[in-house]
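Hello K.,

You asked for the raw outputs rather than the summary table, so here they are, unedited. I folded two proteins back to back in the same session to keep the settings identical. This is the first:
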Amino acid sequence: MKIGIIQQSNCADVQKNMEQLAENIRSVAAQGAELVVLQELHNSLYFCQVESTQNFALAEPIPGPSTEFYGKIAAECNVVLVTSLFEARAKGLYHNTAVVFEKDGSIAGKYRKMHIPDDPAYYEKFYFTPGDIGFRPIRTSVGTLGVQVCWDQWYPEGARLMALRGADILIYPTAIGWESSDTPEEKKRQLEAWQTVQRGHAVANGLTVVSVNRCGHEPDPSGLTNGIQFWGHSFIAGPQGEFIEHLGEECCNKVVEVSIERSETVRQWWPFLRDRRIEEYGGITKRYLDEE
């Protein structure tokens, strides 16, 4: 299967961002992409650097204007498309939601981000209610997609549950970057940790992982920090954790061919799912295990 990954920098003009994404989707589709993955919250700037009720104006229902827009693009380009939207579910109830479109433009399914961070410059708990759909992969014409979103990528439990429910591939739309005060050594550690934990999901589950990050600098509207330099470095890792593709920091579109069938071969060599001791894992559902 050919996968198109779009690593884009954004501006404050939502319409301009969407038009640029449409152009990029057409570009990778013209190169043969069958599945296209966009970054987290790709319509706008990453607004979670501040807590402001004005930003709720960016949210919209699903279905809504953005799903109509991206559904038409998916149908025009004959691709399965993974998007990431700010969902207005009800008055006062909002989610960070990935929506997957089939090749005919219909909505194949959606996933609501489960793990919601609340860190300096990533104030997502102010905006997003944790997802309530669970870790359920989405069936499409190109395979069963285990889609999660950004902060979810640090948690092995979600990846495992997607794998146990039959995901063929793990996908993570992402928005992560550096704070300017971090040292070069610390920046390197953060980037490598981000890559390593997701490559670990690939190995532990015998699945390809697709992680698409945004790039470019976005200022802090409050002026309290120097903003975020989104580090890009979108990548695809194979079922043994090997890099199949690894982008740099700049804006880039890339079409990458992967073998979904290879997962079965790797799982035969390394039968981790066979050897799980499920009868001993009850403690994983606890917040913390105090000494017995």
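The second followed immediately with the same parameters:
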Amino acid sequence: MTPPTFEALSTPALVIDLGSARRNIAAAVKSIGSPDRWRPHVKTAKVAPVMALYLDAGVRQFKCATLLEASVLADCRSAANGTGPADILIAHHLFGPALVQLEALAKKHPTVRFSTLVESASQVPSVPDSVGVFADIDLGMHRTGLDVDDVAETLAIARAAGPRFGGLHAYDGHRHEHDLGERERLAHAGYDRVLRSHGELQSAGIEPVEIITSGTPAYPAALTHSGLGEIHHRVSPGTVVYHDLRTREQLPDHAIEFAVTVLTRVASLPSTDLFTVDAGSKAIEAASPSLIASAIELPEAKALRQSEEHTVFRCDPAIRPSRGDLLRLVPGHVCPTVNLASTCLLMEDGQPLGLAPVAARGHAPLGT
């Protein structure tokens, strides 16, 4: 079957270029130093062919936000005839039926080590015996996790988990200061506290298997911290596989290839300096009202506002597009943008390959 062209697609449409994603993964491995020090968060990828690119690059350990992501990733590894060890952390707090589903997933994929997060020793007995346990550490984001200085509870988790104890998960997603030096300074202060907790565990005769830190904005700072380089430490940036406007803003020194765009058509011309496209908040997720999207063909145009089905741009009247014109939008925030689509068009360096399901979007069906 001939792959569809842009002109043949109904809009809005999610477009993923595998060539750009492949190069982004290679650049991340080079920056981090080794595929073994990277535990990418596949909540960004969402598409099995992109997950396969991680495996091709030698990455064998991952983070997921949902059981569906973990299932798609594990199936992808099986389809690639994966027989060596692999490691998937559900970086989420699971309860009740979700733990039953995770146990079934671990049974289906016996060569994959599955783990999850807890923030209290009281949670450990409910985690299935086949599933590993990481202590979730709060470095100041105040979303989940126990205080980084609560060594007593961290030690209690490690003792309750026994040989299933995987280590410490210390995500610092709040570290995205505009000044890179300030970001590094504050991130390093948090890592110093994690290492003190690590040392206390060692003194108690417990050696954490792994310390996980750092999403996309903070991971360069983790790599310059000498103490983390002396232990079993991994960073977990995920957005770097696709990049978006927010990544470009947060990592200005990085070479950026935008691997994801949302194809859209100009739907209306409300005034001489405005145009409206047919991709709104149901198709493209903004990082903030000031960072909605940018049109590759018209980078000078500024996105002003969104509604569910539309985004309004302002531009110089001399370059305003016509009704029906195709544009490619780079999202402000790519992770939830990919999650909005059920199907995408896969490309290879600009050449269409065909349609593919966004198999890991959303959550698993209820009760499965």
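The domain at 6-10+255-357 is CATH 2.40.37.20 (Lyase, Ornithine Decarboxylase; Chain A, domain 1).

Happy to rerun anything if the numbers look odd on your end.

Regards,
P.
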